[in-house]
């Protein structure tokens, strides 16, 4: 059994929540999940993230055909994200108040033994097993500075340009998407989150929360981010592979 848990919270600083998420079951026991963190204008971020999540949800639910090989799932996730990109980009072009809006995206499809992740931006996916392993690489200015050796990973945590991303859904007519396929061990979990969590909570706490009580893990991690300042919207989605407990 694959268990799904999710929560989003406005945090302690922002007036509105521009994050959105969704998840659901698929035929054959697979599941899917998506997290988006919107940006742009007074309400553009909320519009972008909501549009993207609803579009991706529809694409995955209507097009999933039960195949779980890398090629089939990659094609499904890419088409889902590209369709969402086209919709958000078109909407931004139709309404001057929404010009420039966009959203990060991290989406996954999981089976009892495999995990597929597609993303653009700095919302992340982590595999939670003996430790938390980041499965995604941030598409951000600061990550590029780390990769080039200009700054260290520790310096990146509090860099003033940390929130400047280099890819986002809905900003350009085309979207470059990263994809990864990974084993999904029994008893492990996968966590999708916006940077409102990853910037404020150490990844070790992700595993601890899952191990203590997966039912309340999203609630606990959201509360911890708020205890640490709650400087951004916080979204957490967790998929736990409970097959070893059946």
TrEMBL record:
Pfam families linked: PP2C_2 (PF13672)
Alphabetical list of CDD domains matching this protein: PP2Cc
A GO term, aspect molecular function: protein serine/threonine phosphatase activity
NCBIfam families in the record: Stp1_PP2C_phos
SMART domains: PP2C_SIG, PP2Cc
Protein name: Protein serine/threonine phosphatase
Organism: Ethanoligenens harbinense (strain DSM 18485 / JCM 12961 / CGMCC 1.5033 / YUAN-3)
Ranges annotated as spanning the membrane: none
Lineage: superkingdom: Bacteria
């Amino acid at each position: 059994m694959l268990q799904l848990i999710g929560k989003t919270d406005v945090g302690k600083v922002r007036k509105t929540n521009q994050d959105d998420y969704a998840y659901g079951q698929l035929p054959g026991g697979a599941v899917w999940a998506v997290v988006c963190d919107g940006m742009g204008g007074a309400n553009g971020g909320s519009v972008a993230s909501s549009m993207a999540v609803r579009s991706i949800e529809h694409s995955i639910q209507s097009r999933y055909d039960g195949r779980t090989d890398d090629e089939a799932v990659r094609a499904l996730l890419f088409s889902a994200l590209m369709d969402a990109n086209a919709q958000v980009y078109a909407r931004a072009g139709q309404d001057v108040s929404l010009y420039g809006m966009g959203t990060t995206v991290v989406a996954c499809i999981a089976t009892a033994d495999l995990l597929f992740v597609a993303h653009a931006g700095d919302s992340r996916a982590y595999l939670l097993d003996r430790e938390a392993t980041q499965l995604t690489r941030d598409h951000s200015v600061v990550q590029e500075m780390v990769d080039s050796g200009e700054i260290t990973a520790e310096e990146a945590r509090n860099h003033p340009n940390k929130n400047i991303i280099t890819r986002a859904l809905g900003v350009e007519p085309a979207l470059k998407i990263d994809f990864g396929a990974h084993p999904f061990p029994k008893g492990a979990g996968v966590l999708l989150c916006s940077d409102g969590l990853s910037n404020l909570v150490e990844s070790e706490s992700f595993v601890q929360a899952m191990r203590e009580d997966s039912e309340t893990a999203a609630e606990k991690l959201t509360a911890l981010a708020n205890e640490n300042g709650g400087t951004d919207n916080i979204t957490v989605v967790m998929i736990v592979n409970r097959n070893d407990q059946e």
